[in-house]
Amino acid sequence: MIEVKNLSKTFTSHVKEPGLKGSIKSLFSRELVTKDALKPVNLNIEQGEIVGLIGANGAGKTTLIKILAGIVHPTAGEAKILGYTPWERANEYRRQMALIMGQKNQVWWDLPALDSFILLKEIYQIPDAQYKYNIEFLAEILMVKDQLKTQVRKLSLGERMKIELMAALLHNPKVIFLDEPTIGLDISAQKAVRGFLRQYQKEFKPMTILTSHYMEDIKELCPRIVIIKSGEFVYDGSLSDVQKMMGDEKVLSVTTQNGVFKVSVPRQDLAKKTHELFEEHYVLDLNIQDPSIEDVIESIMKNGIGAT
Amino acid sequence: MKWWKDVMGMELRKILAYRSDFWITFLGQTFIQLMVARALWQAIFETQGVSEMQGFTLEMMGLYYLIAPIGMKILNGPNFGFLAQEIYDGTFTRYLLYPLSVFQYKTLTYLTYSLFYSLQMIILLGIYRLFISEVAFTSVDVGHLFLGLLLFIIGAIAYCMMGMMIEMIALWADNIWSLAVMLRFFTSFFGGALIPITFLPVWAQNILVWTPFPYLLSLPIRTIMGLSTFQEVTQGALILMLWTLIFMEGVKLVWKKGQFKYTGVGI
User: Which end of chain A is more exposed for a tag (fewer CB within 10 A), N or C?
Assistant: First the structure.
Protein backbone atom coordinates (compact mmCIF):
# COMPACT_ATOMS: atom_id res chain seq x y z
CA MET A 1 0.00 0.00 0.00
CA ILE A 2 1.12 3.56 -0.69
CA GLU A 3 0.39 5.96 2.16
CA VAL A 4 1.37 9.61 1.81
CA LYS A 5 0.77 12.13 4.61
CA ASN A 6 1.36 15.89 4.32
CA LEU A 7 4.22 15.38 1.90
CA SER A 8 5.78 18.60 0.63
CA LYS A 9 8.84 19.72 -1.29
CA THR A 10 10.36 23.15 -1.67
CA PHE A 11 13.12 23.81 -4.18
CA THR A 12 15.54 26.70 -4.02
CA SER A 13 17.14 27.98 -7.19
CA HIS A 14 18.76 31.18 -8.37
CA VAL A 15 17.43 33.53 -10.97
CA LYS A 16 19.60 35.46 -13.39
CA GLU A 17 18.74 38.59 -15.31
CA PRO A 18 19.04 38.07 -19.05
CA GLY A 19 22.06 39.25 -21.00
CA LEU A 20 25.78 39.57 -20.37
CA LYS A 21 25.28 42.11 -17.58
CA GLY A 22 23.10 39.62 -15.74
CA SER A 23 25.69 36.87 -16.22
CA ILE A 24 28.50 39.01 -14.79
CA LYS A 25 26.31 40.18 -11.91
CA SER A 26 25.41 36.60 -11.04
CA LEU A 27 29.10 35.79 -10.54
CA PHE A 28 29.08 38.02 -7.46
CA SER A 29 25.52 38.14 -6.24
CA ARG A 30 22.62 35.82 -6.84
CA GLU A 31 18.97 36.13 -6.12
CA LEU A 32 17.58 32.93 -4.66
CA VAL A 33 13.97 31.98 -5.10
CA THR A 34 12.09 29.21 -3.40
CA LYS A 35 9.29 27.34 -5.05
CA ASP A 36 6.79 25.07 -3.37
CA ALA A 37 6.87 22.27 -5.92
CA LEU A 38 4.62 20.19 -3.71
CA LYS A 39 2.36 21.60 -1.01
CA PRO A 40 1.31 19.17 1.73
CA VAL A 41 -0.48 16.34 -0.06
CA ASN A 42 -2.12 13.11 1.10
CA LEU A 43 -2.64 9.98 -0.93
CA ASN A 44 -3.52 6.33 -0.40
CA ILE A 45 -3.21 3.69 -3.08
CA GLU A 46 -4.15 0.03 -2.67
CA GLN A 47 -2.42 -2.98 -4.20
CA GLY A 48 -3.50 -3.51 -7.80
CA GLU A 49 -4.74 0.06 -8.19
CA ILE A 50 -3.63 2.31 -11.04
CA VAL A 51 -3.89 6.05 -10.50
CA GLY A 52 -3.49 8.74 -13.13
CA LEU A 53 -1.68 11.84 -11.95
CA ILE A 54 -2.71 14.77 -14.10
CA GLY A 55 -1.47 18.34 -14.10
CA ALA A 56 0.04 21.06 -16.22
CA ASN A 57 3.80 21.33 -16.72
CA GLY A 58 5.44 22.26 -13.43
CA ALA A 59 2.40 21.29 -11.37
CA GLY A 60 4.42 18.90 -9.18
CA LYS A 61 3.67 15.49 -10.73
CA THR A 62 7.25 14.47 -11.36
CA THR A 63 8.40 15.86 -8.01
CA LEU A 64 5.90 13.59 -6.26
CA ILE A 65 7.07 10.61 -8.30
CA LYS A 66 10.76 11.39 -7.62
CA ILE A 67 10.05 11.47 -3.88
CA LEU A 68 8.05 8.24 -3.92
CA ALA A 69 10.75 6.53 -5.99
CA GLY A 70 13.34 7.60 -3.40
CA ILE A 71 15.34 9.84 -5.72
CA VAL A 72 14.82 13.08 -3.84
CA HIS A 73 14.11 13.84 -0.21
CA PRO A 74 10.91 15.70 0.72
CA THR A 75 11.00 18.92 2.72
CA ALA A 76 8.36 17.61 5.13
CA GLY A 77 5.81 14.87 5.53
CA GLU A 78 5.72 11.11 5.53
CA ALA A 79 5.35 8.33 3.02
CA LYS A 80 5.22 4.58 3.46
CA ILE A 81 5.23 2.25 0.50
CA LEU A 82 4.99 -1.48 1.24
CA GLY A 83 6.02 -0.44 4.75
CA TYR A 84 9.21 1.36 3.62
CA THR A 85 10.10 5.05 3.60
CA PRO A 86 11.13 5.55 -0.04
CA TRP A 87 13.96 8.05 0.44
CA GLU A 88 15.71 5.76 2.93
CA ARG A 89 16.30 3.58 -0.14
CA ALA A 90 16.15 0.19 1.54
CA ASN A 91 17.28 -2.45 -0.94
CA GLU A 92 14.15 -4.48 -0.15
CA TYR A 93 12.00 -1.56 -1.29
CA ARG A 94 14.04 -0.92 -4.41
CA ARG A 95 13.75 -4.58 -5.40
CA GLN A 96 9.97 -4.17 -5.51
CA MET A 97 9.78 -0.81 -7.25
CA ALA A 98 10.26 0.48 -10.79
CA LEU A 99 10.40 3.95 -12.25
CA ILE A 100 9.92 4.38 -15.96
CA MET A 101 10.69 7.78 -17.38
CA GLY A 102 9.60 8.56 -20.91
CA GLN A 103 12.25 11.23 -21.27
CA LYS A 104 15.24 9.47 -19.74
CA ASN A 105 17.09 6.29 -20.64
CA GLN A 106 17.90 3.77 -17.97
CA VAL A 107 19.26 0.99 -20.15
CA TRP A 108 22.80 1.36 -21.45
CA TRP A 109 22.87 3.30 -24.67
CA ASP A 110 25.97 1.71 -26.21
CA LEU A 111 24.99 -1.93 -25.71
CA PRO A 112 22.21 -4.21 -26.91
CA ALA A 113 19.23 -4.49 -24.56
CA LEU A 114 20.00 -8.10 -23.67
CA ASP A 115 23.34 -7.04 -22.16
CA SER A 116 21.51 -4.59 -19.89
CA PHE A 117 18.93 -7.22 -18.98
CA ILE A 118 21.63 -9.70 -17.91
CA LEU A 119 23.06 -7.14 -15.53
CA LEU A 120 19.60 -6.22 -14.21
CA LYS A 121 18.91 -9.91 -13.59
CA GLU A 122 21.86 -10.01 -11.21
CA ILE A 123 21.21 -6.62 -9.63
CA TYR A 124 17.60 -7.54 -8.83
CA GLN A 125 18.46 -11.19 -8.11
CA ILE A 126 15.82 -12.45 -10.52
CA PRO A 127 15.60 -16.28 -10.52
CA ASP A 128 16.49 -17.91 -13.86
CA ALA A 129 12.98 -19.23 -14.55
CA GLN A 130 11.35 -15.85 -13.84
CA TYR A 131 13.92 -14.06 -15.97
CA LYS A 132 13.37 -16.37 -18.94
CA TYR A 133 9.59 -16.17 -18.62
CA ASN A 134 9.62 -12.38 -18.36
CA ILE A 135 11.94 -11.90 -21.32
CA GLU A 136 9.68 -14.11 -23.43
CA PHE A 137 6.45 -12.60 -22.12
CA LEU A 138 7.51 -8.96 -22.31
CA ALA A 139 9.29 -9.23 -25.68
CA GLU A 140 6.28 -11.01 -27.11
CA ILE A 141 3.60 -8.54 -26.08
CA LEU A 142 5.80 -5.53 -26.76
CA MET A 143 6.83 -7.00 -30.12
CA VAL A 144 10.55 -6.31 -29.71
CA LYS A 145 11.98 -9.82 -30.00
CA ASP A 146 14.07 -8.83 -33.02
CA GLN A 147 15.46 -5.71 -31.37
CA LEU A 148 16.98 -7.27 -28.27
CA LYS A 149 20.42 -7.78 -29.81
CA THR A 150 20.66 -4.35 -31.44
CA GLN A 151 22.59 -1.48 -29.80
CA VAL A 152 19.95 0.54 -27.94
CA ARG A 153 21.02 3.88 -29.42
CA LYS A 154 20.23 2.55 -32.89
CA LEU A 155 16.60 1.77 -32.07
CA SER A 156 13.66 4.04 -32.85
CA LEU A 157 12.11 6.10 -30.05
CA GLY A 158 9.16 3.73 -29.77
CA GLU A 159 11.38 0.65 -29.67
CA ARG A 160 13.57 2.27 -27.03
CA MET A 161 10.54 3.00 -24.88
CA LYS A 162 9.47 -0.62 -25.12
CA ILE A 163 12.97 -1.72 -24.12
CA GLU A 164 12.81 0.67 -21.16
CA LEU A 165 9.51 -0.88 -20.12
CA MET A 166 11.02 -4.36 -20.35
CA ALA A 167 14.06 -3.37 -18.31
CA ALA A 168 11.96 -1.78 -15.60
CA LEU A 169 9.52 -4.66 -15.30
CA LEU A 170 11.86 -7.65 -15.49
CA HIS A 171 11.83 -8.03 -11.72
CA ASN A 172 8.01 -7.91 -11.45
CA PRO A 173 7.81 -4.79 -9.28
CA LYS A 174 4.89 -4.37 -6.92
CA VAL A 175 5.06 -0.59 -7.26
CA ILE A 176 5.43 1.15 -10.60
CA PHE A 177 5.89 4.83 -11.34
CA LEU A 178 5.31 5.68 -14.96
CA ASP A 179 6.32 9.19 -15.89
CA GLU A 180 4.92 10.02 -19.32
CA PRO A 181 5.60 6.63 -20.87
CA THR A 182 4.12 7.56 -24.24
CA ILE A 183 5.73 10.96 -24.71
CA GLY A 184 7.00 11.52 -28.23
CA LEU A 185 5.69 8.22 -29.55
CA ASP A 186 3.61 7.91 -32.71
CA ILE A 187 -0.02 6.85 -32.42
CA SER A 188 0.54 3.15 -33.06
CA ALA A 189 3.44 2.99 -30.58
CA GLN A 190 1.28 4.80 -28.01
CA LYS A 191 -1.46 2.23 -28.54
CA ALA A 192 1.00 -0.63 -28.20
CA VAL A 193 2.41 0.75 -24.94
CA ARG A 194 -1.06 1.35 -23.53
CA GLY A 195 -2.17 -2.14 -24.52
CA PHE A 196 0.90 -3.59 -22.87
CA LEU A 197 0.42 -1.63 -19.65
CA ARG A 198 -3.22 -2.74 -19.45
CA GLN A 199 -2.24 -6.38 -19.91
CA TYR A 200 0.66 -6.11 -17.44
CA GLN A 201 -1.57 -4.50 -14.83
CA LYS A 202 -4.13 -7.29 -15.29
CA GLU A 203 -1.56 -10.06 -14.96
CA PHE A 204 0.68 -8.76 -12.14
CA LYS A 205 -1.58 -6.26 -10.31
CA PRO A 206 1.07 -3.76 -9.17
CA MET A 207 0.30 -0.41 -7.54
CA THR A 208 0.84 2.08 -10.34
CA ILE A 209 1.02 5.84 -10.58
CA LEU A 210 0.94 7.12 -14.13
CA THR A 211 1.55 10.67 -15.29
CA SER A 212 0.77 11.63 -18.83
CA HIS A 213 -0.20 14.63 -20.90
CA TYR A 214 -2.12 12.34 -23.25
CA MET A 215 -5.69 11.95 -22.06
CA GLU A 216 -5.98 8.72 -24.03
CA ASP A 217 -3.44 7.14 -21.65
CA ILE A 218 -5.48 8.24 -18.67
CA LYS A 219 -8.86 7.28 -20.13
CA GLU A 220 -7.72 3.81 -21.11
CA LEU A 221 -5.69 2.93 -18.05
CA CYS A 222 -6.77 4.87 -14.98
CA PRO A 223 -10.14 4.39 -13.28
CA ARG A 224 -8.95 6.82 -10.61
CA ILE A 225 -7.29 10.17 -11.17
CA VAL A 226 -5.58 12.80 -9.06
CA ILE A 227 -5.45 16.30 -10.48
CA ILE A 228 -2.57 18.40 -9.24
CA LYS A 229 -2.42 22.15 -9.61
CA SER A 230 0.50 24.30 -8.40
CA GLY A 231 1.66 21.53 -6.08
CA GLU A 232 -1.77 20.85 -4.56
CA PHE A 233 -4.23 18.04 -5.17
CA VAL A 234 -7.45 19.61 -6.40
CA TYR A 235 -9.24 16.38 -7.24
CA ASP A 236 -8.83 12.78 -6.16
CA GLY A 237 -11.55 10.45 -7.32
CA SER A 238 -12.87 8.32 -10.12
CA LEU A 239 -12.48 9.39 -13.70
CA SER A 240 -16.18 8.87 -14.38
CA ASP A 241 -17.14 11.19 -11.53
CA VAL A 242 -15.15 14.01 -13.13
CA GLN A 243 -17.48 14.06 -16.07
CA LYS A 244 -20.50 14.04 -13.77
CA MET A 245 -19.18 17.17 -12.09
CA MET A 246 -20.24 19.08 -15.17
CA GLY A 247 -23.31 16.98 -15.79
CA ASP A 248 -25.51 20.05 -15.56
CA GLU A 249 -23.64 21.81 -18.32
CA LYS A 250 -23.54 21.63 -22.09
CA VAL A 251 -20.77 22.71 -24.40
CA LEU A 252 -21.63 24.75 -27.46
CA SER A 253 -19.08 24.40 -30.22
CA VAL A 254 -19.60 27.38 -32.51
CA THR A 255 -18.09 27.75 -35.99
CA THR A 256 -17.94 31.27 -37.40
CA GLN A 257 -16.02 32.92 -40.23
CA ASN A 258 -13.29 33.72 -37.68
CA GLY A 259 -12.90 30.15 -36.46
CA VAL A 260 -14.27 27.79 -33.84
CA PHE A 261 -14.85 28.53 -30.17
CA LYS A 262 -16.48 26.68 -27.30
CA VAL A 263 -18.82 27.97 -24.62
CA SER A 264 -19.98 26.09 -21.51
CA VAL A 265 -23.57 26.85 -20.62
CA PRO A 266 -25.90 25.62 -17.84
CA ARG A 267 -28.53 23.33 -19.35
CA GLN A 268 -31.44 25.67 -18.43
CA ASP A 269 -29.80 28.59 -20.27
CA LEU A 270 -29.13 26.64 -23.45
CA ALA A 271 -31.93 28.15 -25.59
CA LYS A 272 -31.23 31.69 -24.43
CA LYS A 273 -27.47 31.42 -25.05
CA THR A 274 -27.96 29.84 -28.47
CA HIS A 275 -30.25 32.70 -29.45
CA GLU A 276 -27.65 35.24 -28.26
CA LEU A 277 -24.89 33.55 -30.22
CA PHE A 278 -26.92 33.73 -33.44
CA GLU A 279 -27.56 37.40 -32.84
CA GLU A 280 -23.93 38.25 -32.03
CA HIS A 281 -22.15 36.14 -34.69
CA TYR A 282 -22.56 34.95 -38.21
CA VAL A 283 -22.77 31.28 -37.20
CA LEU A 284 -21.82 28.73 -39.85
CA ASP A 285 -22.24 25.66 -37.66
CA LEU A 286 -23.29 24.87 -34.12
CA ASN A 287 -22.83 21.68 -32.09
CA ILE A 288 -24.30 21.00 -28.67
CA GLN A 289 -22.34 18.39 -26.69
CA ASP A 290 -21.81 17.01 -23.23
CA PRO A 291 -18.47 18.24 -21.89
CA SER A 292 -15.61 15.84 -22.60
CA ILE A 293 -13.31 14.62 -19.85
CA GLU A 294 -10.57 16.71 -21.42
CA ASP A 295 -12.74 19.85 -21.13
CA VAL A 296 -13.52 19.16 -17.49
CA ILE A 297 -9.95 18.42 -16.52
CA GLU A 298 -8.67 21.42 -18.42
CA SER A 299 -11.19 23.56 -16.61
CA ILE A 300 -10.16 22.13 -13.22
CA MET A 301 -6.47 22.61 -14.00
CA LYS A 302 -7.08 26.21 -15.02
CA ASN A 303 -9.67 27.32 -12.52
CA GLY A 304 -9.72 24.80 -9.72
CA ILE A 305 -12.56 22.60 -8.56
CA GLY A 306 -14.97 25.37 -7.63
CA ALA A 307 -15.27 26.63 -11.19
CA THR A 308 -16.67 23.42 -12.65
CA MET B 1 28.21 -11.36 -5.29
CA LYS B 2 27.66 -12.33 -8.92
CA TRP B 3 26.47 -8.82 -9.75
CA TRP B 4 30.03 -7.60 -9.16
CA LYS B 5 31.19 -9.81 -11.99
CA ASP B 6 28.33 -8.68 -14.22
CA VAL B 7 28.91 -4.98 -13.56
CA MET B 8 32.54 -5.44 -14.56
CA GLY B 9 31.57 -7.51 -17.60
CA MET B 10 29.15 -4.77 -18.63
CA GLU B 11 31.82 -2.08 -18.39
CA LEU B 12 34.24 -4.20 -20.40
CA ARG B 13 31.62 -4.58 -23.12
CA LYS B 14 31.24 -0.80 -23.15
CA ILE B 15 35.01 -0.37 -23.57
CA LEU B 16 34.96 -2.80 -26.49
CA ALA B 17 31.79 -1.38 -28.09
CA TYR B 18 33.50 0.97 -30.57
CA ARG B 19 36.28 -0.64 -32.58
CA SER B 20 38.13 2.36 -33.99
CA ASP B 21 38.03 4.26 -30.71
CA PHE B 22 39.31 1.16 -28.94
CA TRP B 23 42.38 0.79 -31.16
CA ILE B 24 43.19 4.51 -31.13
CA THR B 25 43.04 4.53 -27.34
CA PHE B 26 44.84 1.23 -26.99
CA LEU B 27 47.80 1.83 -29.27
CA GLY B 28 47.85 5.20 -31.02
CA GLN B 29 47.46 7.62 -28.13
CA THR B 30 50.13 6.03 -25.94
CA PHE B 31 52.80 5.72 -28.62
CA ILE B 32 52.26 9.28 -29.87
CA GLN B 33 52.72 10.61 -26.33
CA LEU B 34 55.79 8.41 -25.96
CA MET B 35 57.36 9.65 -29.19
CA VAL B 36 56.83 13.31 -28.29
CA ALA B 37 58.29 12.86 -24.79
CA ARG B 38 61.24 10.84 -26.06
CA ALA B 39 62.08 13.46 -28.71
CA LEU B 40 61.97 16.22 -26.10
CA TRP B 41 64.19 14.37 -23.64
CA GLN B 42 66.62 13.40 -26.38
CA ALA B 43 67.02 17.11 -27.17
CA ILE B 44 67.55 17.87 -23.45
CA PHE B 45 70.14 15.10 -23.03
CA GLU B 46 71.99 16.29 -26.16
CA THR B 47 71.90 19.95 -25.12
CA GLN B 48 73.18 19.11 -21.63
CA GLY B 49 75.77 16.71 -23.06
CA VAL B 50 75.04 14.07 -20.40
CA SER B 51 74.15 10.39 -20.57
CA GLU B 52 72.21 10.31 -17.30
CA MET B 53 69.96 12.74 -15.45
CA GLN B 54 68.68 12.16 -11.88
CA GLY B 55 69.43 8.45 -12.29
CA PHE B 56 67.65 8.16 -15.67
CA THR B 57 69.36 7.30 -18.96
CA LEU B 58 67.58 8.29 -22.18
CA GLU B 59 66.43 4.69 -22.66
CA MET B 60 65.01 4.59 -19.13
CA MET B 61 63.33 7.93 -19.74
CA GLY B 62 61.64 6.42 -22.80
CA LEU B 63 60.34 3.55 -20.70
CA TYR B 64 59.20 6.04 -18.02
CA TYR B 65 57.10 7.90 -20.60
CA LEU B 66 55.56 4.68 -21.81
CA ILE B 67 54.48 3.70 -18.30
CA ALA B 68 53.43 7.17 -17.06
CA PRO B 69 50.51 7.89 -19.45
CA ILE B 70 49.09 4.38 -19.12
CA GLY B 71 49.57 4.65 -15.36
CA MET B 72 47.59 7.88 -15.46
CA LYS B 73 44.83 6.03 -17.33
CA ILE B 74 44.84 3.27 -14.69
CA LEU B 75 44.37 5.95 -12.04
CA ASN B 76 41.72 7.84 -13.96
CA GLY B 77 39.48 4.85 -14.59
CA PRO B 78 36.57 5.89 -16.81
CA ASN B 79 38.02 9.43 -16.88
CA PHE B 80 37.35 12.49 -14.82
CA GLY B 81 33.79 13.65 -14.55
CA PHE B 82 32.66 10.04 -14.13
CA LEU B 83 30.33 11.02 -11.30
CA ALA B 84 29.95 14.81 -11.62
CA GLN B 85 28.67 14.57 -15.20
CA GLU B 86 26.02 12.05 -14.17
CA ILE B 87 24.90 14.25 -11.29
CA TYR B 88 24.80 17.22 -13.67
CA ASP B 89 22.67 15.51 -16.32
CA GLY B 90 20.55 13.36 -13.99
CA THR B 91 21.87 9.97 -15.17
CA PHE B 92 22.90 9.41 -11.55
CA THR B 93 19.22 8.65 -10.83
CA ARG B 94 19.67 5.19 -12.33
CA TYR B 95 21.96 4.10 -9.48
CA LEU B 96 19.58 5.38 -6.82
CA LEU B 97 16.92 3.05 -8.16
CA TYR B 98 19.04 -0.11 -8.10
CA PRO B 99 18.99 -2.20 -4.94
CA LEU B 100 22.72 -1.82 -4.32
CA SER B 101 25.20 0.73 -3.10
CA VAL B 102 25.82 3.41 -5.69
CA PHE B 103 29.41 3.78 -4.48
CA GLN B 104 30.15 0.07 -4.70
CA TYR B 105 28.77 0.13 -8.22
CA LYS B 106 30.81 3.16 -9.27
CA THR B 107 34.00 1.78 -7.67
CA LEU B 108 33.54 -1.47 -9.56
CA THR B 109 33.05 0.25 -12.89
CA TYR B 110 36.10 2.36 -12.10
CA LEU B 111 38.20 -0.71 -11.28
CA THR B 112 37.15 -2.39 -14.51
CA TYR B 113 38.76 0.41 -16.48
CA SER B 114 41.85 0.34 -14.25
CA LEU B 115 42.27 -3.42 -14.71
CA PHE B 116 41.77 -3.09 -18.44
CA TYR B 117 44.47 -0.41 -18.68
CA SER B 118 46.76 -2.60 -16.54
CA LEU B 119 46.40 -5.29 -19.19
CA GLN B 120 47.13 -2.65 -21.80
CA MET B 121 50.29 -1.74 -19.91
CA ILE B 122 51.50 -5.36 -19.93
CA ILE B 123 50.87 -5.71 -23.68
CA LEU B 124 52.46 -2.37 -24.59
CA LEU B 125 55.50 -3.03 -22.42
CA GLY B 126 55.88 -6.35 -24.24
CA ILE B 127 55.66 -4.63 -27.63
CA TYR B 128 58.11 -1.94 -26.53
CA ARG B 129 60.62 -4.50 -25.31
CA LEU B 130 60.32 -6.68 -28.41
CA PHE B 131 60.36 -4.00 -31.08
CA ILE B 132 61.70 -0.73 -29.66
CA SER B 133 64.15 -0.86 -26.75
CA GLU B 134 65.34 -3.99 -24.99
CA VAL B 135 68.07 -1.98 -23.23
CA ALA B 136 65.48 -0.06 -21.17
CA PHE B 137 64.35 -3.30 -19.55
CA THR B 138 67.68 -4.14 -17.89
CA SER B 139 66.27 -3.88 -14.38
CA VAL B 140 62.63 -4.80 -15.20
CA ASP B 141 61.32 -8.26 -14.31
CA VAL B 142 57.91 -9.89 -14.00
CA GLY B 143 57.90 -9.59 -10.20
CA HIS B 144 58.51 -5.83 -10.32
CA LEU B 145 55.93 -5.47 -13.07
CA PHE B 146 53.15 -7.11 -11.06
CA LEU B 147 54.16 -5.36 -7.86
CA GLY B 148 54.00 -2.02 -9.70
CA LEU B 149 50.64 -2.88 -11.22
CA LEU B 150 49.33 -3.85 -7.79
CA LEU B 151 50.42 -0.43 -6.51
CA PHE B 152 48.65 1.21 -9.45
CA ILE B 153 45.42 -0.67 -8.63
CA ILE B 154 45.60 0.28 -4.94
CA GLY B 155 46.28 3.83 -6.11
CA ALA B 156 43.30 3.69 -8.49
CA ILE B 157 40.99 2.82 -5.59
CA ALA B 158 42.39 5.73 -3.55
CA TYR B 159 42.09 8.06 -6.55
CA CYS B 160 38.55 6.84 -7.25
CA MET B 161 37.55 7.73 -3.67
CA MET B 162 39.27 11.11 -3.94
CA GLY B 163 37.51 11.72 -7.28
CA MET B 164 34.10 10.74 -5.88
CA MET B 165 34.54 13.00 -2.87
CA ILE B 166 35.43 15.98 -5.06
CA GLU B 167 32.97 15.26 -7.86
CA MET B 168 30.06 15.04 -5.44
CA ILE B 169 30.48 18.77 -4.92
CA ALA B 170 28.39 18.83 -8.12
CA LEU B 171 25.42 18.16 -5.84
CA TRP B 172 25.78 21.78 -4.68
CA ALA B 173 27.60 23.48 -7.52
CA ASP B 174 26.12 21.59 -10.53
CA ASN B 175 29.16 22.03 -12.74
CA ILE B 176 32.57 21.28 -11.28
CA TRP B 177 34.50 20.58 -14.48
CA SER B 178 37.33 22.95 -13.50
CA LEU B 179 37.82 21.18 -10.15
CA ALA B 180 38.12 17.82 -11.91
CA VAL B 181 40.67 19.28 -14.35
CA MET B 182 42.66 20.75 -11.45
CA LEU B 183 42.73 17.39 -9.68
CA ARG B 184 44.02 15.72 -12.81
CA PHE B 185 46.70 18.38 -13.28
CA PHE B 186 47.91 18.11 -9.68
CA THR B 187 48.05 14.34 -9.96
CA SER B 188 49.96 14.48 -13.25
CA PHE B 189 52.43 17.08 -12.05
CA PHE B 190 52.98 16.11 -8.43
CA GLY B 191 52.64 12.41 -9.16
CA GLY B 192 55.37 12.50 -11.77
CA ALA B 193 53.49 11.93 -15.02
CA LEU B 194 54.78 15.14 -16.59
CA ILE B 195 58.34 14.90 -15.25
CA PRO B 196 59.81 12.44 -12.75
CA ILE B 197 59.44 14.00 -9.29
CA THR B 198 63.17 13.56 -8.63
CA PHE B 199 63.54 16.60 -10.93
CA LEU B 200 61.56 18.75 -8.49
CA PRO B 201 63.42 20.70 -5.75
CA VAL B 202 64.17 18.68 -2.62
CA TRP B 203 61.94 20.90 -0.45
CA ALA B 204 59.02 20.19 -2.82
CA GLN B 205 59.73 16.46 -2.69
CA ASN B 206 59.77 16.64 1.11
CA ILE B 207 56.33 18.23 1.12
CA LEU B 208 54.95 15.80 -1.44
CA VAL B 209 55.62 12.74 0.72
CA TRP B 210 52.81 13.98 2.97
CA THR B 211 50.37 13.90 0.05
CA PRO B 212 49.08 10.85 -1.86
CA PHE B 213 50.46 12.04 -5.22
CA PRO B 214 53.94 10.44 -5.35
CA TYR B 215 52.49 7.08 -4.29
CA LEU B 216 49.86 7.22 -7.00
CA LEU B 217 52.23 7.47 -9.96
CA SER B 218 55.91 7.91 -9.26
CA LEU B 219 56.27 4.95 -6.90
CA PRO B 220 54.49 2.37 -9.12
CA ILE B 221 56.38 3.60 -12.20
CA ARG B 222 59.70 3.29 -10.40
CA THR B 223 58.64 -0.12 -9.06
CA ILE B 224 57.89 -1.44 -12.55
CA MET B 225 61.25 -0.08 -13.70
CA GLY B 226 62.93 -1.95 -10.84
CA LEU B 227 64.08 1.26 -9.11
CA SER B 228 62.20 0.83 -5.79
CA THR B 229 63.03 -1.31 -2.81
CA PHE B 230 60.54 -3.76 -1.32
CA GLN B 231 60.36 -1.58 1.79
CA GLU B 232 59.41 1.47 -0.31
CA VAL B 233 56.70 -0.59 -2.03
CA THR B 234 55.11 -1.90 1.18
CA GLN B 235 55.35 1.49 2.84
CA GLY B 236 53.77 3.13 -0.23
CA ALA B 237 50.96 0.55 -0.36
CA LEU B 238 50.14 1.14 3.32
CA ILE B 239 50.12 4.92 2.85
CA LEU B 240 47.79 4.56 -0.15
CA MET B 241 45.45 2.35 1.87
CA LEU B 242 45.40 4.93 4.63
CA TRP B 243 44.54 7.66 2.12
CA THR B 244 41.81 5.38 0.71
CA LEU B 245 40.22 5.09 4.14
CA ILE B 246 40.41 8.86 4.65
CA PHE B 247 38.80 9.53 1.27
CA MET B 248 36.14 6.86 1.89
CA GLU B 249 35.12 8.66 5.07
CA GLY B 250 35.09 11.87 3.05
CA VAL B 251 32.79 10.29 0.45
CA LYS B 252 30.40 9.14 3.19
CA LEU B 253 30.35 12.57 4.78
CA VAL B 254 29.79 14.46 1.52
CA TRP B 255 27.04 12.06 0.44
CA LYS B 256 25.35 12.25 3.84
CA LYS B 257 24.91 16.00 3.35
CA GLY B 258 24.73 16.12 -0.43
CA GLN B 259 21.98 13.55 -1.03
CA PHE B 260 19.43 16.12 0.16
CA LYS B 261 20.55 18.41 -2.65
CA TYR B 262 20.06 15.92 -5.46
CA THR B 263 17.12 16.92 -7.64
CA GLY B 264 17.31 14.37 -10.44
CA VAL B 265 17.32 16.99 -13.17
CA GLY B 266 16.17 16.04 -16.63
CA ILE B 267 13.38 13.75 -15.54
Answer: N
Of the pLDDT bands very low, low, confident and very high (cuts 50, 70, 90), residue A2 is: very high
Residue B11 lies in a domain: yes
| Residues of chain A contacting residue B98, judged by C-beta atoms under 8 Å apart | 94, 123-124
In angstroms, the Cα distances linking A35 to A39, A231, A235, B74, B115 are 10, 10, 22, 44, 46
Substitution target from B22, B101, B174, B267 for chain A, most A beta carbons within 10 A: B267
Cα B237 to Cα B62: distance, rounded to the nearest angstrom: 26
By the 8 A CB rule, do A103 and A183 touch? yes
Domain that holds residue B26: 2-261
Chain mean position to CA A16: 30
Residues 6 or more apart whose CB falls under 8 angstroms from that of A36 comprise A8, A9, A10, A230, A231
| Nearest-angstrom CA–CA distance, A214 and A218 | 7
- Find the CB nearest A111 among B6, B17, B100: B17
Pick the CATH number of A44-76+85-242 from 2.60.120.330, 3.90.1720.10, 3.40.50.300, 3.40.50.2000: 3.40.50.300
Question: Band of the pLDDT at B15, cuts 50, 70, 90?
Answer: confident
pLDDT in tens, B194-216: 999 999 999 999 999 999 999 99
Q: Confirm whether B267 is domain-assigned.
A: no
Of A104, A108, A118, the CB nearest to B267: A104
- Please report whether residue B145 resides in a domain: yes
Chain B stretch 60-119, residues whose beta carbon is closer than 8 A to a beta carbon of chain A: 90-91, 93-94, 96-100
CB neighbours of B45 closer than 8 A, spacing ≥ 6? Answer: B51, B53, B58, B61
Please judge whether B262 and A151 are an interchain contact, meaning their C-beta atoms are less than 8 angstroms apart: no
Q: How many domains are there within chain B?
A: 1
